[in-house]
C-alpha cells in the first residue's frame, strides 16, 4: 500500500506527540466534569481511539455517521445522518470529534443538530483542518494540524473506503485516482 503514497505530510511520531498534547489540554479544560465524546464516523475513529487514551477525565463515547464524499474526492455539500447517537446529549458536556474540516458543511450541520438537543456545553476537536476550502465558518476548539488544500488519506481517512490503516497522513499518487 505504501508504494501508492506520493508523500507523507504528517508522520506517526508527530501525530502521537500532538495527540498527547491535545489529550492533556482537553483533560485540563474538563477537569471535574464528565465529557461525552461524539465521534463522527468513519474517518475519526482512529483519532478517537488514540485521543481517549491520552485523556485523564471520566468520559463516554458515542458515534454518529453522516454521508460524506462517497467514492469521489469532492464534497457534494449534501449532509445526511446515516447513524444517530445512542445517548441523549441534553445537559451533557459534548466534545465532537471530527477527522477533517474541509468546507465545514458536515461539521456545521452536526453542530446545529446537537445544539437543538440542549447540551450543557458543545465543543469541537478536529484532527485536521483545511482552511482554504472553507464554505461556512466553524469554530474548532481543539485542532491537531492545519494542512494545505490536498486530498489526504491515512490515520482513519480513506480514499474509496481504503487507506484508513496507514499510520500517517499522506497524499496518494495520481495513478490511484485514475485506476477507478
Ligand atoms: P466538509 O463537510 O468539511 O467539506 O467535509 C468533511 C468530510 O469530508 C470529512 O469528515 C471527510 O470525511 C471528508 N474529507 C474532506 N477532506 C478530505 C480529505 O482530504 N481526505 C479524505 N479522506 N476525506 C476528506
Question: Can you walk me through this structure?
Answer:
With 180 residues, this protein is of the alpha/beta class. The protein has one domain: Rossmann fold, CATH 3.40.50. Helix content is 24%, strand content 28%. The protein has helices at 12-29, 45-53, 105-115, 174-178, and strands spanning 5-10, 35-41, 59-66, 81-83, 93-101, 121-129, 142-146, 169-172. Strands 4-3-2-5-6-7 form a six-stranded mixed β-sheet, sandwiched between helices. It has a two-stranded antiparallel sheet with strand order 1-8. Strand 2 (35-41), helix 2 (45-53) and strand 3 (59-66) form a beta-alpha-beta unit. Helix 1 (12-29) packs across helix 2. The mean pLDDT is 93. The structure holds guanosine-5'-monophosphate (5GP). Guanosine-5'-monophosphate is lined by residues 43, 68-69, 75, 98-107, 151-153, 157-159.
Which features characterize this protein?
two-stranded antiparallel ribbon; binds guanosine-5'-monophosphate; Rossmann fold; six-stranded mixed β-sheet; alpha/beta; 180 residues; 28% strand; 4 helices; 24% helix
Tell me about the biggest sheet?
Answer: 6 strands, mixed
The strand count comes to 8
Overall 3D geometry? globular
Bound molecules: guanosine-5'-monophosphate
In round numbers, the mean pLDDT is 93
> What strand line-up does the widest sheet have?
4-3-2-5-6-7
Give unreliable regions as ranges. Answer: none
User: What's the CATH architecture name?
Assistant: 3-Layer(aba) Sandwich
Amino-to-carboxy terminus distance: 16 Å
CATH topology description: Rossmann fold
Assembly type: single chain
Amino acid at each position: 500500500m505504501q508504494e501508492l503514497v506520493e508523500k507523507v505530510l504528517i508522520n506517526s511520531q508527530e501525530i502521537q506527540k500532538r495527540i498527547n498534547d491535545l489529550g492533556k489540554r482537553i483533560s485540563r479544560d474538563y477537569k471535574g466534569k464528565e465529557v461525552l465524546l461524539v465521534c463522527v464516523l468513519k474517518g475519526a475513529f482512529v483519532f478517537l481511539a488514540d485521543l481517549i487514551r491520552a485523556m485523564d477525565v471520566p468520559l463516554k463515547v458515542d458515534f454518529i455517521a453522516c454521508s460524506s464524499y462517497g467514492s469521489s474526492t469532492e464534497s457534494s455539500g449534501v449532509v445526511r445522518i446515516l447513524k444517530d447517537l445512542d445517548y441523549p446529549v441534553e445537559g451533557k458536556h459534548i466534545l465532537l470529534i471530527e477527522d477533517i474540516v474541509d468546507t465545514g458543511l458536515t461539521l456545521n450541520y452536526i453542530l446545529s443538530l446537537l445544539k437543538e438537543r440542549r447540551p450543557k456545553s458543545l465543543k469541537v476537536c478536529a484532527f485536521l483542518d483545511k482552511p482554504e476550502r472553507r464554505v461556512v465558518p466553524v469554530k474548532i476548539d481543539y485542532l491537531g494540524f492545519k494542512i494545505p488544500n490536498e486530498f489526504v488519506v491515512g490515520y482513519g481517512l480513506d480514499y474509496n473506503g481504503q487507506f484508513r490503516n496507514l499510520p500517517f497522513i499522506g497524499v496518494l499518487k495520481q495513478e490511484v485516482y485514475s485506476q477507478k
